[in-house]
Amino acid sequence: MRIVYQRGCGLDVHKESVTACLLLIDDDGEYRVEKRRFSTMTRDLRDLAAWLRAEGIERIAMEATGVYWRPVWNILEPLGFELLLVNAQHIKNVPGRKTDQKDSEWIADLLQHGLLRGSFVPPSEIRQLRDLTRMRARMRQELATYANRIQKVLEDANIKLGAVASNVLGVSGRHMLKALMAGERDSKQLAAMARGRLREKCDSLELALDGHFTDHHRFQLTLLFDLLEYGEMQMAKLEVEIHRLLNQVGNQESNGSLQTAVDLWKTIPGIDDLTWLPKSVPIWISSLTLITSPVGPASVQATTRARVSVVAEKLGREAFGCGVGCAKRPGHLRGRRTRTLPRSTVG
Fold this sequence. Notes:
The chain is an alpha/beta fold. The protein contains 12 helices and 5 strands. The protein has a 5-stranded mixed beta sheet. The two termini are 32 Å apart. The relative contact order is 0.09.
């Protein structure tokens, strides 16, 4: 079988160790195999990088094993190595005795003959943005959990604020809840704290706020409210950092198509400038380069814009989580048959 890389390396990455196998063909045609095992501590990973550089390795392949490949990738990527991240399902070895040394040698052997297909790994700036936007999504889920628990405590105390106010944690609702936690029990005084159109429902508010609110409820509500406000404060800091990185990436000349992607995603109902990011990266590299390119026929650029618009509609369908014809889908998407995009990215 034809040899593509004469100096390749296969890495079998685990939580606490990395096994490296080098398949080397020297200038005189001599075939050598070298294997070493390193810890995943940063110092040992740097020793691994120095060893690979000293051996003149051309290309490095590793399995996408959970998140354990990321520290190895982050150490090797800035040093200029040509890295390949491979889906573990694509390189399954034949049944038999399985060891780390055999796995790394099998990866190196497949790499040497050009039989590996790498997964898409976004640039480091996009990986950072992905981490932050996913953290933001998880934090929003946690904040929603705190809000539901607050509502549960109010129901247990027979405070029916949610039956009158559309948003228990709005401006008026927060004033009333803080007064409850401060010791105010007069429903008339609490109802007088309403703001805006909620003042028209003062009579209903007085009835809703006349409950059986004990010190036990006060303790729970205070704890949950503090957690909610702290989470909202951290969410605000997180969004500031996301916008900073987003502007930094968008201002780079090589990432000129990113702003075009942002503008397209934001035309989808329900997608804002923070929720577009985790879904747009797979298409950003592959589909948007022609849009902002100064060369190329106008027809080619128009075709690319049309293709991206179709992709944007598909992403809108995934964002709403609805099937074809679902009433919750935006009007311009309702009734259209669209295929779900394949998950072709890692990280």
